[in-house]
Amino acid sequence: MASPKQWTIKEPYLDLKCKLGEGPHYDERVNEFRFLDIDSKKIHFVDPSKGPSSLRTISHPGFSIGVIADIDGHEDEFMYAGEFAYGIMNRHTGEHRSVKDIYGGDPDAEEKKKRCRMNDGNVDSAGRFFAGTFVDPSKDAANVLTPGEKTNALYRYDRDGSLRKVIDRDVVIPNGTSWTYDDKIMYYTDTPKGIYKYDYDIETGAFSNQRTFFESGFAKNEGWGPDGHVMDEQEHLWVALFGAGKVVRLDPKGEVVAEVLIPGAKKISCPCFVGTELWITTIGIGEDSGEQGGMLFKVDVGVKGKKKHMVYVDQ
């Protein structure tokens, strides 16, 4: 087997020193790149055609946001999976409103809110918004790697505004999710365990036949695991390896065929495509995050990303 193709990024695109850089997203309708600093409760915005000087920031001090998605027919707003709820935010003003509390009617709601938050996710081609919850290390660091049936889960927000818990057992840190072009395969990440592959039913949003696609280094005591990922137009996954200082490109068999190395940052969180460029968020928390941890990086990898789907809402 040929050695993986490699790129090395030595200088950041933006030197922001985020605490927990995450959730990169590109809205091609308005040519706007957005990414999160989850622990600082901020969203950063950049116009790729204007560069770093176009950076602007919206703070949302009342709650954290784990992932965002575009809304069909609404260019001025986006949907988010927030600390305890799905919501909608104006991308100009930061004005926001909650549309679905994930713990509504839950007798354990207060316990979960003290310990958890929503994390990564994605939208399928039918407009369903998946996002997971886990034990937030800023609230309960001792139990982050403990599966919790009362705390950790994967949720699905459907087009009719209803909410369903679709995985509620043995979830540790739910992360990157994606689907193939034909909607028959779903990839879902649980960072300490790896990336799973499922058969997917686009008509119902149900998935089955779990098998391991890519094993986490944490499962082998190697100190790294798959974080967020994005799919390219060739149905390869570009996966951020938290703790390994790189993004790897996986072919449909789960083999590493390319790597993006970031020597100055150890905790890589999530990649996102802007044209043929891969924009990559990193984490700056901890002495082991690296001198460039928390900064934003980008590199041209010569392939475009699979187009992201939008959420459909009536609210």
Short structural description:
The chain is built from two helices and 24 strands.
Helix content: under 10%
Q: Enumerate how many helices there are, as a single number.
A: 2
Oligomeric nature of the chains: single chain
Strand order of the largest sheet: 1-21-20-19-18
Order of helices and strands: EEEEEEEEEHEEHEEEEEEEEEEEEE
Gyration radius, in Å: 18 Å
What structural category arises from helix and sheet content?
A: mainly beta
Low-confidence stretches: none
Query: Ends: how far apart?
Result: 52 Å
Could you explain how this protein is built, in words?
It is a single chain. With 315 residues, the protein is mainly beta. Helices cover 3% and strands 48% of the residues. The strands form six sheets. The protein has a five-stranded mixed sheet, with no helix packed on it. β15 and β16 (194-201) form a beta hairpin.
